[in-house]
Amino acid sequence: MNSFFQRRFVIQGIFIVVALVLLLRLFYIQVIDKSYFLSANNNVLRKVIIYPARGIILDREGKILVQNEPVYDLLVTPNEVKPFDTLEFCRLIGIDKAGFHKRFDKARNYSPYRSSVFEKQISARTFATFQERLFEFPGFYVQNRSVRRYPDSIAAQFLGYIGEVNDKDIEKSKGFYRPGDYIGKTGVEKSYEELLRGQRGVLNLMVDAFNRPKGHYADGKYDTLAVAGDKLISSLDRDLQKFGEKLMNNKIGSIVAIEPATGEILAFVSSPTYDPNMMVGRQRSKNSVQLYKDPLKPMFIRPIQAEYPPGSIFKVINALIAQQFGQAKPETRYFCGGGYRFGRRGLMRCTHVHGSVDLAQSLQYSCNTYYGYVYSNMIDRSGMRPVNGYKRWREAVAKFNVGSRLDIDLPNERKGLLPTDELYTKRWKSDKWGSGFNISLSIGQGELGITPLQMANVAATVANRGFFYKPHLIKAIGEKKVIKKEYTQKNHTGIDAKYYDIVVEGMSRAVNQPGGTANFAVNMIPGIELCGKTGTVQNPHGKDHSVFFGFAPRNNPKIAIAVVVENAGFGSSWAAPIASFMAEKYIRDTVTRPRAVVDYFLTKNLLPGQDKPKIKISAKADSAGSKKKDTVSSANTKAN
User: Fold this and answer.
1) Quick one: which H or E segment has residue 216?
2) What range does the domain containing 34 cover?
3) Residue 408 and which of 25, 265, 421, 594 are 20 to 30 A apart at CA?
4) Does residue 70 sit in the same domain as residue 208?
């Protein structure tokens, strides 16, 4: 009897313990652990993402630069798949059998009951054929997407490209993006991502245990529509951009053209370039690898990332600052005997013996000697210690946005280099140095580094006689054509407007009067006064770079431009003619110079390894372009 009751209590205890365990487990599943709830919910609802159309990008006249093209992602639910002709399926979508099994195994490992992407970005042409046979392949269905298409295949570095998000993008977006979403990776696509991407929509579909659709949940009450991204109106002139890219074909360098009155960038050429359509579709990954491995670096955005010593174009800035500091006047003359001597043995040569020259002539002839004296006066005869004179000079140069970013609406802009006094004090182990220790700064050589965008902005500043608007590539946003306030504000350089007239005169003479470094028929625009300055930038790795900046016309300028052609020699040989063609093209919509001359510049190949170009048009070197070994060696020459 006692034994019976003991067994009964033991059995009851076991049942009670099991019941408690089950209750606790049920409590854990229903209250604490949400995974089972979510799994059950997903067996009832399928959320189908509706991707919005990405905002289109237009040129300044409303011509399409970037549009959308429909593509289709092919999705699969493995457990719904029935036997079918695998080889025919592979042929229809353009994959091989091994690729099919690899994709299918990946989808099945993800989930046998939930859909996942089997193949991305099937083109509309491929889908048109596949769609007719889709019923033969149960378990497969498509989702509409869109990718970018570039009708004119231009401005690749400006426009950028989109790509699939990575883990970092998802984390940074705080959950907005999901695996498989696209995001702007470079260029304007990245800078204006939040405006271009639009807002996703969602369809809530009822599904059964086998994930088969059974209609909209609550008759679509909780569905949301996709909202297209904002339209962007760029500042680019499509035809000018196309012409600039043709001029720079088979050349390395940049063209940046700005409308001085607004700061809008009219042309943004980085060469070598590439067809932006290469970064779209199923071949994107393969093309991307090829482009990044290309030794000519077509993915490098030269207008904002390449830094060069400005060369003789920097004399324009020194001419303005010297006047503001009271160290030069229009009538100030210095005698050029072929070079500027400093210290006991230092010599900065000119290419010619210019004799006595005034301020305008110093720019017309690009006289190094003149700027050696001017720079020395600003640093050594400023009424303060030379190191302090240098600090004051550097502050004045910095107001032209040399050595600092212009904050253009593109990512990864570089700021250039404007050396500090600390650099020279550290180099010479003393702060008792003067102009002879960095005299090459007087003619734009030495430690200076400036981007083509900064060059063009200086040209726009001179065109405006003392101020500039922040350069930008997007002039208006959306249907309301919103303009960012920062693009409407003037930025002053601190140089009085009255000091610009003589500098503009010198720049005009450089192009339009005998003896000017750019005074050749090919550089002169009939009926339009182009004002500019050539530069021949020393390159320690090879042939000098050809540089020119300027604006046109002289009064009420419509365009300011900077051109850099790497390893091309004198500024007057290549950069100046290209700039003059671009200026006339924009102002007149045509180029009136002889067609044979224009074709020469359009077709000449200056890439490394090509034959040395045979320039048919004679060219003068500006003073910084002398090929003698000791022409501009003073940056590292210690004065005594």
Assistant:
1) strand 213-216
2) 9-42
3) 421
4) yes
CA atoms within 13 A on the CB side of 331: 0
Distance (Å, rounded) from C-alpha 31 to C-alpha 359? 85
Is residue 189 in some structural domain?
no
Cis peptide before 272 (omega within 30 of 0): yes
Write the Ramachandran bin of 215: left for phi over 0, alpha for psi from -120 to 50, otherwise beta: left
Regarding whether 403 and 271 lie in a shared domain, the answer is yes
Number of domains in the chain: 3
Mean predicted lDDT score pLDDT of the chain: 88
Flag the least confident range among 156-165, 203-212, 549-558.
203-212
Residues 22 and 139 in one domain: no
pLDDT digits (tens, 9 = 90+) for 236-272: 999 999 999 999 999 999 999 999 999 999 999 999 9
pTM of the entire predicted model: 0.85
The CATH number of whichever domain residue 116 belongs to comes to: 3.90.1310.10
Rounded to whole angstroms, how far apart are CA atoms 165 and 595?
48
Provide the pLDDT confidence category of residue 203 given band limits of 50, 70 and 90.
confident
Q: pLDDT band for 209, please (50, 70, 90 cuts).
A: low
Instruction: Report the length, in residues, of the chain.
Output: 640
Domain co-membership, 14 together with 142: no
Is residue 290 domain-resident?
A: no
3-class DSSP string for 603-627: HCCCCCCCCCCCCCCCCCCCHHHCC
- Check: CB of residue 509 under 8 Å from CB of residue 360: yes
Average pLDDT over residues 99-103: 91
Q: Do 38 and 50 reside in the same domain of the chain?
A: no
- Together in a domain, 227 and 310: no
Residue type at 348?
M
Q: How far apart are CA 513 and CA 1, in angstroms?
A: 130
110 belongs to a structural domain: yes
Q: What is the CATH number of the domain that holds 263?
A: 3.40.710.10
Q: Tokens 């200026």 label which residue?
A: 583
pLDDT at 618 (0 to 100): 41
Between CA 500 and CA 319 the distance in angstroms is 9
* Residue 161 located in a structural domain: no
User: Do residues 501 and 533 share a domain?
Assistant: yes
Non-local CB neighbours of 10 within 8 Å, separated by 6+ positions: none
Q: What angle do CA 83, 88, 94 make, to 5 degrees?
A: 120
The domain boundary, picked from 177, 212, 234, lies at 234
Question: Any idea which residue has 């372009």 for tokens?
Answer: 625
Q: 253-262, 280-289, 497-506: lowest mean pLDDT where?
A: 280-289
**Residue 366, number of CB atoms within 10 A of its CB:** 35
Q: Are 308 and 619 in contact (CB under 8 A)?
A: no
Tell me how far apart the alpha carbons of residues 106 and 92 are, in angstroms, rounded to a whole number: 20
Give the residue among 460, 544, 11 at the shortest CA–CA distance from 257. 460
How many CB atoms are located within 10 Å of the residue 139 CB? 18
